[in-house]
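TICKET: design request
STATUS: open
ATTACHED STRUCTURE:
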C-alpha cells in the first residue's frame, strides 16, 4: 500500500510565514501543499477546487480573518477540511472564537518543525485533541463569558460522560479504550453519539462545550 498523502492549503497574509510553512510541510513524504492564499476571502473557492484535507490558516488577516473563513467553510461544505488556526499569540481571544465556531485546533507560528508536522497529522487522523492543555488555558481565560447548558441538555449516558472527560484530557480512542476497558470500536461509537448529542462537529467543539457547561473544570 502506498503512502497516504495529506493535502494542505496554506492561508496567511505574510509571504514569509507561508514560505516557512511550505518548506517544513513539503519536506514530509506524506504531505502535499496544494495551494496558498494571502487572505481568507478566497478560501472557500480554493477548497472547492483543490480539495485539501487540512487548511492551515492565520487567524488575523486584513480582509477576511480566520474566524469568518472558518464559518464560510463549515456553512457551505458538506465535508469541510480540518482547519488548523495559525497564530502569533496563543492566549488570543480570536483563537478561542475560531475554535468555538468550528476550527479543529491551533498552532503557534514559532512552533518547531516537528510540532507543525505532528499537528497536521493529528488533525488529519481526527481521533485525538490537539494541545489539550493549551485549549484548557484558553477556556479558562475566555470561556467564562460563554456559559451554556449544552452538556446538561445532551443527556449523555454515564459511559459517554466518561468518554467526554477522557477526550478533554487529550486521550485518543485507543487510550480511552484502554482506560475504560472498552473496545476501540465501542469508543468510536460513544464519541459519535456524544458529538451528535452535543451538536458538535468534532472533539474540539465537544470539549469546549464541556468547559463552557462546567462539566469539565478548565483549571
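STATUS: resolved
RESOLUTION: sequence designed for all positions
ATTACHED SEQUENCE:
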Amino acid at each position: 500500500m502506498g503512502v497516504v498523502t495529506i493535502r494542505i492549503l496554506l492561508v496567511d497574509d505574510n509571504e514569509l510565514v507561508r514560505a516557512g510553512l511550505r518548506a517544513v510541510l513539503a519536506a514530509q513524504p506524506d504531505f502535499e501543499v496544494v495551494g496558498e492564499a494571502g487572505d481568507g476571502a478566497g478560501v472557500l473557492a480554493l477548497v472547492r477546487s483543490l480539495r485539501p484535507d487540512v487548511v492551515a490558516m492565520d487567524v488575523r488577516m486584513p480582509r477576511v480573518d480566520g474566524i469568518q473563513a472558518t464559518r464560510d467553510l463549515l456553512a457551505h461544505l458538506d465535508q469541510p477540511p480540518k482547519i488548523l488556526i495559525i497564530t502569533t499569540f496563543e492566549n488570543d481571544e480570536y483563537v478561542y472564537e475560531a475554535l468555538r465556531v468550528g476550527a479543529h485546533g491551533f498552532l503557534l507560528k514559532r512552533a518547531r518543525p516537528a510540532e507543525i508536522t505532528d499537528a497536521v497529522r493529528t488533525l488529519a487522523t481526527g481521533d485525538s485533541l490537539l494541545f489539550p492543555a493549551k485549549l484548557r488555558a484558553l477556556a479558562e481565560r475566555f470561556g467564562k463569558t460563554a456559559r451554556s447548558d449544552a452538556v446538561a441538555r445532551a443527556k449523555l449516558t454515564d459511559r459517554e460522560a466518561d468518554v467526554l472527560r477522557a477526550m478533554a484530557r487529550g486521550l485518543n480512542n485507543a487510550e480511552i479504550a484502554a482506560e475504560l476497558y472498552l473496545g476501540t470500536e465501542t469508543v468510536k461509537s460513544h464519541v459519535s453519539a456524544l458529538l451528535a448529542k452535543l451538536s458538535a462537529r468534532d472533539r474540539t467543539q465537544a470539549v469546549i462545550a464541556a468547559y463552557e457547561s462546567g462539566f469539565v473544570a478548565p483549571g
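CLOSING REMARK: The longest helix spans residues 184-198. Residues 131 and 203 are 12 Å apart (CA to CA).
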